[in-house]
Amino acid sequence: MIQTPPDPSPAAADGAGIDPIAALSDELARQIAARRFDVLKRRLRTGEIADVAEAIDRLNDEQEAIAFRLLDRERASEVFEHLSFDAQEHLLHTLSDADAAAVLEEMSADDRTALLEELPGKVTVRLLNLLSVEERARAVQLLGYPEDSIGRLMTPDYVRVKPGWTVAQALAHVRLYGDDSETLNVLYVTGPGGVLVDDLRIRQLLTVDPETRIEALMDRVFVALNVNDDEETAVAQFRRHDRSALPVVDGSGVLVGIVTVDDVLDVQEREATEDIQMLGGVQALDDPYLQVPILTMVRKRGTWLVILLFGGMLTAEAMAFYEDELASAVVLAIFLPLIIASGGNSGSQAATLITRALALGEVKLSDWWRVMRRELASGLLLGLVLGLLGSARIAVWAVAFGAYGEHWPLVALTVGVSLVGVVLWGSLSGSLLPLLLKRLGADPATSSAPFIATIVDVTGIIIFFTIATLILSGTLL
Amino acid sequence: MIQTPPDPSPAAADGAGIDPIAALSDELARQIAARRFDVLKRRLRTGEIADVAEAIDRLNDEQEAIAFRLLDRERASEVFEHLSFDAQEHLLHTLSDADAAAVLEEMSADDRTALLEELPGKVTVRLLNLLSVEERARAVQLLGYPEDSIGRLMTPDYVRVKPGWTVAQALAHVRLYGDDSETLNVLYVTGPGGVLVDDLRIRQLLTVDPETRIEALMDRVFVALNVNDDEETAVAQFRRHDRSALPVVDGSGVLVGIVTVDDVLDVQEREATEDIQMLGGVQALDDPYLQVPILTMVRKRGTWLVILLFGGMLTAEAMAFYEDELASAVVLAIFLPLIIASGGNSGSQAATLITRALALGEVKLSDWWRVMRRELASGLLLGLVLGLLGSARIAVWAVAFGAYGEHWPLVALTVGVSLVGVVLWGSLSGSLLPLLLKRLGADPATSSAPFIATIVDVTGIIIFFTIATLILSGTLL
User: Fold this and answer.
1) Which of B348, B382, B384, B401 is the best substitution to test chain A (most A C-beta atoms within 10 A)?
2) What is the ipTM of this complex?
3) What tens digit of pLDDT does each residue of A253-300 get?
4) Which of A54, A165, B76, B447 is the most exposed place for a label (fewest CB within 10 A)?
5) Does residue A3 come out as left (phi exceeding 0), alpha (psi in the -120 to 50 range) or beta?
6) CA–CA distance from B110 to each of A400, B116, B140, B243, B246 (Å)?
7) Which of A154, A158, A194 is nearest to A173 (CA)?
8) Cβ atoms within 10 Å of A37's Cβ, excluding its own
9) Do B244 and A225 touch (CB under 8 A)?
């Protein structure tokens, strides 16, 4: 909920149902159409950066370019950082080289890295050449880190202080140089060679006598990220230590940059989205759903669907193997989808729970035996519940409607025992497959729900017909 | 990666494969066994709070209580905030009333709210009575907010400054009162009646002449959360505005507390876990997997499995309806699991993508027509790919192994067309059901993958046999 000062402009109207961003966007469009550029310039000076950026994002390409050029230079890069990638790409095409260079120079190093790594190679090279020598060196260095590494998330703009300074001297230093720093919530104490020695939260400097030495505030205990680690580790560390920024060091402990918590919120959401999509049996989309080109969508979904289809062809093999039993007792076919679906559902549940628990570190590989015991117990209980319900359903239909012939009690028994079997098997395989994949060094989320369901389908058919043969030979079979 | 000063204690050994927390935990256990309490007291004074807390968490109940009592009072509440809920609950049982009161008084208000809302009612009442009058009033007020609301996440500890002050005066105020504030990264400017007027990031005060008036720094534009909103809205706002804390106001715009970003990281993860579990067809577990009691697990999973079983019984009805066709053409039964599984897989994919897109705001209800067009296109293309592969499979088996009898081309056609039908139908229903649920005011994540799969199973059977009847009557049927 955005608070804006009382203001005659309709953009400030905060009535129920009015989307303030849409209102602002409409207002900008109107001013552009009326060519009231002075009014527009003034309007763009106020408001939260993120809101102005989103309002500009909603304009069409032509309006976007006009509005952006009217931003004050200082605000321009901040707004640019918050634009969608599409808008950024488009603006970089239409801005003059000088304007594009100005925006890129001012951008936070980490946001610039994110932009440059998404652009096509040729565009990236062209843009790098627009930067000053110093900024280009920084940009290139950051791009040199592995994709999805902490190096790509960090920015080299932070404030360093020396242990021998007083707090007053440190704050004076901050006053002079603080504007260039990504954050002033944390300051970093470095030693010879730039090795990180300690971090200090700004509150430690603000709540003591200004003549206190920095040394006296240090406890030499700090948490640092490693520049080559995967960005996922950053999420875990931020969650444990309640910080708004964490330092990044290289292999020798030299401070090379910092990661701020806003980037981590984005990483956490991205990671969750990837996990969700993989569990659902889709290769991670990497873009908002409505923006993914149809053919890309078909490729990413088709890959898995085809793999699963081949898995499904094994069910046809299994069914063909039991063709005679099917021919003799068509009543078995009637309950087959029910049984294998129950196994698949149970497997999906288990796979989902274990994969998520692995991702959150709640379950480790060494816990596999505990997991198996729990799934044996749960699977058995769940199977019993479903088996009883399934058998009851057959009994009711047989008694009420005379369905399923004279051997219906045996059919009910077959279905009941099969349900216990497939649900138990589904729980076990659904929980152990992610662990096995992780053990083999693969991503446990590859054990998607549909994949488990396919495995349980094939084995469920075998379980069902084996039990049916045991119980019904001599009668229906 | 934790950096600790060079130190003879094995807990500092940072070799490959050594878990520093486990090492610390073992060290604590050893000191407790050897009754070296002085050494232990000193050891507990160093190290990151989160790490000490986790090490203590790994001790058994008795060791936990001993270690905790040896913590310096100041550190004790901070460590307590980071303990797992189980450890917190256990310690509150074993600590004397005086010690428990001391810890609770010092805790951050939001962490205390989180603890009290989890405890059984009687325990909560007992603990509230241990608090001072003032803290009890604050605790009760926070607990008075709706569950999962922003009121439950916030803390009333922040620094307020007045517009008429100079920066120097504001920093002097911070020096005196800042220790009690949850964060000093943001300061809040309030007007008459405590109404929030502006927020100032600490960097704005640190980078200007100390004689500047607060007023001059204000732009009167800020983002505030509403105390009764759902905690999910906090996640969205933090992600948009790159802040480490956001103010919370009530209906009249009066500042009532702040939410810090560490809580939001937790909320984001919790929300993602809930969505993942619901998509997988499980009621949200709310606790780490290994800590959920077996019977609770069975209840939460069983509820959905039973519902899906009843849905599955509809497949039995559908199959019974086509019993004659099944009896005449057993070859149809062979491909049935394959076909309905493909439909279910396609539906799972679509449901997963749309549900996540809805949760992230990438897709809105008004986008339903765009979604449907995309799913029609994707579903058709995917169905064609699968249909061709499925038919090809039958053709190859028929030609190579003489399977499926003389009418195999018609069988292949039936299976191929059915695959197109169920995949298309799966994509459409999988994507539209979450939208429909949201339209009806329900949680779209209820349209779990297994639920969609069940719907597509039933309708897939009907589609399959209808197509079979059309193509194969007169031959196999």
Assistant:
1) B348
2) 0.82
3) 999 999 999 889 989 998 899 888 888 888 888 888 988 899 999 999
4) A165
5) beta
6) 59, 10, 12, 18, 14
7) A158
8) 14
9) no
